[in-house]
Inverse folding.
C-alpha cells in the first residue's frame, strides 16, 4: 500500500476559464486518476491510497496527521506560492528529511517547499508559445524511465529553458528539447535527509499534459521510486 | 525471483589452512547461505535462485548463458586477479552496462572487473592486524542500510585505509573506523550504463566476517538495490 | 586581490573565560591572521584584503555593500544562530548564488545560512571529550588538499560524529577519525548557484585549533577554491 | 607555464579531400592555434607551451617523457581508435590518475583512452546532416563557461544524440539542442584519480568548428580548469 497526497493550489481552475476547460475538477483530481485509473491497476500491481489537499483548506490540507500518513506528496502550484504558510513548509521539509517522497511538478519549481529543500532560487527561463517538447530519456537505466520509449513528445506546451538554478541533480533522467531552440533538465532526482525528491517539468494548467499516457507512467514510476524505505536510525545530538 | 551468481576465486580455501578452517567449502558457499538460509526467508520475502562460479571452471564459470540469466553477480577475488581472462571481463562489463547488478567484495577492489568499470587503480592502504572495525552508516536513508543500527562492529579484521583510488561514489553508504587510526569508504554505490555496482569492504578470508548477521543483511539489501529494473531503450548508432 | 570577510558570532570569547583564554581578541581576529600572517605571504602569492564582521554590529556587519565587495565569506557561529536576522540570511544566500564563496566552520553547521543553502537539518552527533582527531585526506587530488600530508592530526578536540544530515557532498575532501570510535565527513564541497561552499569541521572555541599550521593551510586553500569565477550569464525570466 | 600536448589521429586530413580542405595542416595544428594565437595572448595571461603528437609517429608520439612533461592532453580521434596501442592507453591512464588533465574532443568519445577511464561503452546516436546546434550553458557558474554568452551556436554540424552511455558527469556544463529534434550532454566534467577530464562535443573533421571563437574560448577555459594542482600524497600499499 502506497499512500499518496496530491497537493494543488487550485486557483487557476476556479478563476480562469481556459484552465477550467482543461481541468474542470482541478489538477489534483486529474492527477488522482493517474493512480486510480485502469492503467495503474494493470501496470503496477501496487495498491494506492490517494488523497488530495488544496491551498484554501485549513492548514492547506496538510496537517501533521495527513503528512505523517503520507508516503509520497505531489505538489502543484503556480500563482500563489507566497500564500503557503511557512509553518506548513517547515512541516513538509521535516517529513521529507524523515523519508517522505516528494514530486514537484511544473511551475512548482518556484514553490516555497522546493526552494527550501534545494537552497537555490530555482529560477529558469520560460515562454508560453504552445510549441512542441520532446523529453529525452538521458538515463535509460533509471527506474523512473521504466517502460518508456526514447523520448516523450508533447505537441503543445509552455517552454522552460536553461539555466535552471538548482543544485546539480543526483541523477538527471530527462532533458527536454523545445521547438523554439531551448533545452531544459526536465527530470531531476535529489535526496534530502532520507527523502527522495523528483522534479518533473510537464504540466501546464492550460494544456492537457496530465492526460498523456507516458507522463502518467512517469508519475507512477516516480512515486514508486520516491516511496520511503526503512533505512537506519537518524540519531543526532550528544553522544556518550 | 532474483537470480544471483556468486563468483569466487576459490584458491585460498583450497591452499591455505587458515582460510580452509574458516571457509571449508569456499567463500562462495558461505555467501550462498546468505540467500538460502532461514534469515533470508524470514526477512526478505524474495525468492532467490543462487548459483556459484569459480576461477578454475571453464570460462571461470561465467559463460554468456550464465551471465544472461544473472540478475546480480557477486565477486570475490584476491590473489589471482590476473588469471581472469579479459574476454570474461568484457562479458561481465557488457552485462553490467545492460543492467546486471554487481557486488564487489573486499579484496575484489583490485579485480579486473572493478577496475575496468571504474577506470581508476582502485588502490588503497592495508594492514593485516586483526583490529576492530566499525562501519558507520553515513547515509541512513539508503535502502542498503535498511534495518541496520548506527554502525556494524567487526571485532577482528584486516584494515583498509584511505586514500581509496576510486571515482567519487554516487552515494556513500558506509565509512569505516579502524582501531589503528584509519578511515575507509566501505560501502560505495556506482552506476555504469544501466547496471548498479556496490563495493562492500568486509570479507577477509581468515576472519569469519560473512557469518556476521548485519553483514549478511547488507548483502541481501545490496542485492535488492542492485537488481535490474526495466528502464528505457539503450539505442545507439546512426539515427535517421 | 581576494577580499575576505570573516564573520564571527563573538560571544563565547567575551562571556566565557575558557574561550577568552584561547581567543582573547575573538575567533575572527585569529582567523584573520591566517591570511595576513607571514605564512600566507610566503606560500600563496595572493594579496588578501581581510575584513571582519560580528553578530552585535548593525546588520551583523553584513550590509549589502560589505557583501557586494566580498569574494569569500567565512562563517563561525555557535550559541546564537537564532539571533541572525532572516534578512541578512537572505542577503548572504543571494550573494552566494551570484558567486560569492562561503566557508562554514565547525559549529556553524547549525547556522541559518548553512541550513538555508543546503535544505537539510545539518544535525550530527557530538561529544566534548578532548580526544584526538585525524582528518584523513580522502581526495588527494582536490586543490583544498594542496600541500598537505596524508592526514592532519589534532591532539585534543570536540568529537563530531555521523550521521551528518547534509546532502551528499559534490566532493568529499576530508573524513575524520576520532579516538572514541566515530567518523565524520569533515570537509564537504558544495555548489549553490554560482557560489562555492566548503564546510570544514575543525574549530572549537576552547581548543586552539586555528593555530594549527595545516588547518590554516586548508583555510587558505579553501578560500582560493571558493573564489568567484567569471562564468556565463545567469539570465532568468520570460524569453522572447 | 602550461604544457599542452595535442594528440590527433591525423588520417582524415591526409586521406579525405573534404577534411583536407578544412584542416590542411591537420586538426592538431588548428587546435594549436587556439593556444598560440593572438586571442590567447590577450585573454588569458597564461604562457602555453604547445606540442603535438599523432597516431603514426613512434609510440603515437606519446612516450613517457612526453606525457611526464604534459599538463593537459587534448585527444582527437575518429576512424582509427583501434590502432592505438594498449600500452600507450595504459600510460595515458596512469598519467591522468596522477593528475594530468585530459580534454576528449568530439568523436574521441569512442577512443580507447576515454572508454578506459570511464568504464562504459561511451556510445551515442549520430546523424551527419549539417544542421544547427546550440550548446546551452547549463552551469553558468563553472569556470569552463567563463566569458561565454547563454549559448554557443554552430550553424552547421553533425548531430550527436542521447542516450550517451557515460557515467553521470560530476558537473554538466553544456547541453546541446539540435535542429533535428535531439539533445546531447556536450560538456561533461569528470575526475579520475587526481586528473580532471572534460569531454567537449564540438569538432567534426569537415566543418570548421575549431575556428569558432567561443569554441576556442571553451578549449582554453577547459585547459585552465584541467591543469594539475599540487594535491596531497597518493600513498598506497601496506601501512605499518
Amino acid at each position: 500500500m502506497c499512500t499518496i497526497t496530491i497537493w494543488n493550489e487550485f486557483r487557476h481552475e476556479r478563476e480562469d476559464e481556459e484552465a477550467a476547460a482543461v481541468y474542470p475538477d482541478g489538477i489534483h483530481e486529474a492527477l488522482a486518476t493517474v493512480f486510480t485509473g485502469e492503467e495503474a491497476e494493470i501496470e503496477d500491481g501496487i495498491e494506492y491510497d490517494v488523497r488530495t489537499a488544496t491551498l484554501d483548506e485549513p492548514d492547506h490540507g496538510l496537517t501533521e496527521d495527513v503528512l505523517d500518513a503520507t508516503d509520497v506528496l505531489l505538489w502543484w502550484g503556480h500563482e500563489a506560492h507566497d500564500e503557503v504558510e511557512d509553518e506548513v513548509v517547515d512541516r513538509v521539509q521535516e517529513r521529507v528529511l524523515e523519508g517522505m517522497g516528494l514530486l514537484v511538478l511544473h511551475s512548482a519549481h518556484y514553490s516555497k517547499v522546493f526552494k527550501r529543500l534545494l537552497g537555490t532560487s530555482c529560477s529558469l527561463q520560460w515562454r508560453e508559445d504552445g510549441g512542441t517538447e520532446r523529453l529525452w530519456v538521458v538515463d535509460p537505466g533509471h527506474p523512473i524511465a521504466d517502460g518508456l520509449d526514447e523520448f516523450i513528445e508533447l505537441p503543445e506546451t509552455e517552454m522552460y529553458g536553461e539555466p535552471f538554478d538548482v543544485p546539480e541533480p543526483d541523477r538527471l533522467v530527462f532533458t527536454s528539447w523545445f521547438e523554439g531552440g531551448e533545452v531544459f533538465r526536465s527530470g531531476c532526482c535529489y535526496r534530502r535527509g532520507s527523502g527522495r525528491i523528483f522534479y518533473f517539468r510537464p504540466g501546464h494548467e492550460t494544456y492537457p499534459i496530465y492526460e498523456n499516457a507516458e507522463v502518467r507512467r512517469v508519475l507512477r514510476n516516480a512515486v514508486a521510486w520516491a516511496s520511503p524505505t526503512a533505512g537506519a536510525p537518524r540519531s543526532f545530538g550528544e553522544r556518550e
